[in-house]
Structures are given as structure tokens and as C-alpha cells.
Amino acid sequence: VDQLKPLIVLQKAFGRNCETGRGITELEQTLERMEASVQLAEAMKRMEGLDQEIHDLKAAIRQKYVDVEAAKEREADRQALLEGAGSPRELQALETQLKAAQKYREATESESLELEERLDGLTKQHKALLEQLPRLREAADQERRSAEERLESLCRDRENLLREMETLRAVIAPSVLREFDRLINCRGGMAVVPLVGDSRCGGCGLALPMLVVEEISDNELVQCECCSRFIVREQVFEDSAVSP
Ligand SMILES: [Zn+2]
Question: What's the pLDDT tens digit per position in 225-237?
């Protein structure tokens, strides 16, 4: 039993170590692309887009002001000419020009108004986004911290497991350990199996000779003739399955 128990516990620790390693890999991958961080990055990008759009819109509105002022001047110019017009034909031509100038000014003013409305809408979006940012940033920080904490805890678990495994290995005979290492790697993490159905190998199902079953009952170190796994009494296997 002195050799059997450490072997079984070592096998258990080996399995947990594999699991922990997988957990660490998964967490490391999760850390690369966390949901809240992705949302924050998207919000920052939207913010940048809005900044640019607002900047362009303001420039367009400034240009519309210039256009409206120029149109007003042209209008006043035509108005003055109209007042000093000589012939009816000249009068008619100037009236037509004045109307066109008015129409252009009105259209430009209405375009300018539309731009200002759009700017208003964008400014509101910008403000709303700005208010959301601290919350998004907080959520992303929290997500990262929590994942990092879980990762740290898993790394600690792994260190403890490795230490535990070293302690167990120290009490197992080198030749047995060599066989165990070979089996755990080529037999799907099961180097030690319980005797099942009173006389069968729990690994490959081989029916064992009476003599071998007796050796197992006496807690001797027995290997299956077929799969080479160490076979132990079911009770010994169950009792040792729970790590101390
Ligand atoms: Zn077997």
C-alpha cells in the first residue's frame, strides 16, 4: 500500500495538473479578447469618428455662413442697381437677377440650418458616449482584474500541484516511477486502475488469473499482462482517489 497510494494520488494530481494547464491557456486566450474591453475599444473608435465628423461639420457650417454673407451682399447690390434702373428692360433683368440671388441665399440658409441640426444631433451623441465611457472603462478594468486574479489563482494551484507531485514522486521507487511515467503518457492519464468485476483489469478489461487477483488483494504491485497498467483493489483506488 505504501507504493500504491502515492501512485494513485500522483495520477490524480497529474490529471488535475493537466486540467489546470488547460484552464490557464483558456484564461490567457480570454485575456486577449475580453468582451468589456472590446466594447470599450468600439466606443473609443465611435468617439474618434464622431470627433472627426463634428470637426468637418463645423467647417462646412462656417463655409455656409460665408456663402450666405456673400449672397446677401449680391442681393443688396442688385437691390441698389434696381433702384437706379433706367429702362424697363434693365429693370426686368435686374429683378430676375435679384430673385435668383434671393433664391440662392434662401437655399444656402436652409442648407446651413440642416447642417446645424445634424451638428446638434452629433453633439448629443458625443455627449452621451462621453458619459458612458467611464462606466465602460470601469467594466473593462474589472473584467481584466477578475480574469487576472483567476489566472493567478490557477498558477498558484499549478505550483502547489507540482510541489505535491514532487513530494509523491520522492516516496516511489525509481523503477516504478519510470513505468508510471511511461504509462500515464501513453495510456490516457491512467497508469493505475482498479480491479473491476472481481477479476478484470479496469483499464483494458482483461480477465486476470486467480493468482494475480490474489496478489492484488494482498496489495502487491501488479501490472496487467495486456495493458501494463498497475491494478489495485477497488477500495484502495477509491480511498486514494481523494487527494489528502
Ligand atoms: Zn489491462
Answer: 999 999 999 999 9
User: C-alpha distances in angstroms, 43 versus 38, 91, 132, 190?
Assistant: 9, 60, 9, 50
pLDDT at 240 over 90: no
Q: Which grid coordinates belong to 186?
A: 501513453
Residues with CB under 5 A from ligand 1 (ion): 201, 203-204, 206, 224, 226-227
Question: What are 127's three cell numbers?
Answer: 455627449
Length of the chain: 244
Q: What is the DSSP letter of 207?
A: B
CA of residue 126 to ligand 1 center, whole Å: 69
- State in Å: Cα 161 to ligand 1 middle: 28
Residue 56 DSSP label: H
CB atoms within 10 A of CB 158: 17
Half-sphere exposure of residue 113: CA atoms within 13 angstroms, side-chain side: 6
- State mean pLDDT over 51-69: 95
Distance 231 CA to ligand 1 centre (A): 8
Q: Classify each residue of 44-75 as buried b or exposed e, where b means 16 or more C-beta atoms within 10 Å of its C-beta.
A: eeebeebeeebeebeeebeebeebbeebeebb
Q: Which residues of 187-214 are buried (b: 16+ CB within 10 A; e: fewer)?
A: beebbbbbbeeeebbbbeebebeeebbe
